[in-house]
């Protein structure tokens, strides 16, 4: 890929520039094996091309959501479609590359003071927004101020380490971020990625979202909620892009998405179901792109302040009512790995020493009887919104019956699964997350966070998390986060049974598409 930001490396104190890919690549090998077992090969499923990039052409991409609730507000993005649209039209200070390393985007570098309580960020010069306005430090400070406001942004909790009021402009291309607590790996903190909350940069003063004004490689020309988003290539973009036009269309049914790709109605699709992946593994008309064993997961959760789930014996029983290897086999068709109720498997901060929660229906029965709920019945809301979601809920329903647990499954539409009148309002739901523990926790476990799904409220724990974030020594910081995972494993409301490897697909006519560490396929790097 002839892209300037792919050629720039970072070497900053406290950053793990050579951070290992999710699960050390072990699941990526497993994916190749799974695809080979059903008639394909790892080379076929992860095909790349050496053709010279050429400018021109148009493609349509089938998305798994994008119906009700889809908006152009970059500070409220519960939908995958919104994220992909923003990656094409907007940018962060730092991005995550396909191997999950932080790389420069709108910022070229970041320099800490001696105790990492302040960082000077140097902006890329001569960047312009899609309306012709030049990017300055004022836009960065405005975007971070807006993104840190919980009344305006759904991910403000992830910016809690930054003292926005004390941060200031040093020059048009220099921003001093003053921190409320030291942050050793600040470029990773600022980089985009699954589960992270770093804001897209918008022009200073923007407060209405009837269009997108961004610095990205494409400009939004058409947006019809639930129908399409059309973007055209920007000739004044600071980096590289090749396709003249990219259109996102919602196709929420997984089989219909694959049919649309096979028929040529679209040239790429996000989130191929494992069954479809196995069926199409040998098809030369398309290329399957499994992620690098990503830390993406579709957990069940309960609200821990709602009876009977406010009793940890009940929550532990639920965790013991799940046969995790069977869920990987039957729910994901082998395209995944077992989880242990804590996010971030494969990242350096993941606590792999925690005892594994195993399937034990008899112990689950004992705990439920002890809690006075030996005939536990509840409703679980699920969807086909993400890979293995509906399938895993169906398998768990059967498994939990052996523990005397009766689960009533209700399937909701994918298009509005995270923008309906049930999500965050009912005590049991199935969610979709990803990323490292330290990026996920402020969004899911901080008091007042928009997506505190389980109603976790532990001030002492949250204070220790903030302290851990500020540890300068990398190894000590990793150990501090591992310690913080223990109470989440013991008392938390997430039944994180496993991690799935997202599988995307493109037409064989699309070049430049390669496997990544996250669900985003980076369409800005493709050509025809």
How does the major sheet shape up?
A: 7 strands, mixed
Which band does the percent of strand residues land in? Answer: 15-25%
The number of helical elements comes to 14
> What is the number of E strands?
20
Radius of gyration: 22 Å
Strand order of the largest sheet: 8-9-10-1-11-20-12
Number of domains as seen in the coordinates: 2
Tell me the span between the first and last alpha carbons.
Answer: 13 Å
User: What is the SS-derived class?
Assistant: alpha+beta
CATH topology (fold) name of the largest domain: Dipeptide-binding Protein, domain 1
- CATH homologous superfamily name of the largest domain? Dipeptide-binding Protein, Domain 1
**Whole-number mean pLDDT:** 87
State the helicity in percent bands: 25-40%
Low-confidence stretches: 1-48
CATH architecture of the largest domain: Alpha-Beta Complex
CATH class of the largest domain: Alpha Beta
Coarse morphology = globular
Note the main attributes of this structure:
single chain, Dipeptide-binding Protein, domain 1, 26% helix, globular
Description:
- 26% of the residues lie in helices and 17% in strands.
- The protein has 528 residues and is of the alpha+beta class.
- It folds into two domains: 4-210 and 502-525, Dipeptide-binding Protein, domain 1 (Alpha-Beta Complex); 300-500, Dipeptide-binding Protein, Domain 3 (Dipeptide-binding Protein, domain 3).
- The strands form six sheets. A seven-stranded mixed beta sheet has the order 8-9-10-1-11-20-12, with helices on both faces. A four-stranded antiparallel beta sheet has the order 4-5-7-6, covered by helices on one side.
- The longest helix has 18 residues, at 474-491.
- The radius of gyration is 22 Å and the shape is globular.
